[in-house]
Specification:
about 260 residues, alpha+beta, Double-stranded beta-helix, 6-stranded antiparallel beta sheet, 19 strands, about 15% helix, about 40% strand
């Protein structure tokens, strides 16, 4: 498996985008909806799956693309190929505030496991599939971490993390306990499981869920401070309800406080 060798530059701070430079006939694949801009001479094509299996028949392509539905993604991805003369650039934007992380798969034993919504783009030749945790407990209670994506190959892939990104290198048998939604990804040498938090008060009043993930080294782990699910929950909690009222945006006085402030 030989992925296209691409050059890139990441721009921005909070709302980043990655600018990928393509030589003639080089291709990058990306999730639908991540496209930002491209030079003339680059052709955009919709493809089944990731296009990494050139010799695969139509049925096989449909099956592999269909697996992406389990991760909440669509059947199709988009490829961008430089059919022009000279170098051309295509750019892809992060879907929400955070950081874009380049993962060189040759540095993580040719396989990286990440959250189902973390993948942004990759050099053509990188395989984008799904990764199941074989333990039934993880399957039933793992939340965001149950069905994850796996990136395989020898090229560069770009993933996105919400909020602040933190990289940890776990030593042999070192264990890190993480909220399931805060996991961005890890290399295949890291063992992943879930653990019950325990305690009635923790379970019902802790506000942190019933389970957390345990990541056991050795290997590289990426953690995000603001998973999109948490961001979305907080936006919904403070959004105006029907009729224009809200929960008071954290104010003890609520609607009365807004009236005093002159909002009404």
């Amino acid at each position: 498996m030989y992925a296209h060798e691409i050059d890139y530059e990441i721009h921005g701070e909070e709302m980043q985008f990655v600018e990928i430079e393509l030589d003639p006939n080089e291709t990058v694949i990306a999730e639908a909806g991540s496209f930002m801009m491209m030079d003339e001479g680059i052709k955009m094509e919709t493809i089944f799956g990731d296009g990494s299996r050139k010799t695969e028949g139509l049925f096989g392509k449909i099956v592999n693309a269909g697996k992406r539905l389990l991760t909440g993604e669509g059947l199709f991805m988009t490829s961008y190929t430089n059919y022009g003369h000279g170098k051309k650039k295509a750019s892809f934007a992060a879907p929400y505030p955070g950081k874009i992380v380049p993962i060189d798969l040759t540095e993580v034993n040719n396989k990286f496991i990440c959250q189902k919504d973390a993948f942004l783009a990759a050099a053509k030749g990188v395989s984008v599939g799904i990764e199941f945790n074989k333990k039934i407990g993880t399957g039933l209670f793992g939340g965001e971490g149950f069905i994850m994506q796996k990136l395989e190959g020898d090229g560069i892939a770009f993933i996105h993390a919400g909020g602040t990104l933190h990289k940890r290198i776990l030593k042999q048998n070192e264990v890190l306990k993480v909220d399931t939604g805060c996991i961005v990804g890890f290399e295949k040498s890291v063992h992943y499981d879930i653990e019950f938090i325990g305690g009635i008060r923790n379970t019902f009043f802790g506000g942190e869920g019933v389970f957390f993930a345990t990541l056991k080294g050795p290997g590289v782990v990426y953690v995000q401070s603001l998973p999109f699910s948490r961001l979305a929950d907080r936006i919904i909690a403070h959004a105006p309800s029907v009729g224009g009222s809200s929960k008071g945006e954290g104010s003890v006085l609520g609607g009365l406080g807004r009236l005093i402030d002159g909002d009404r």
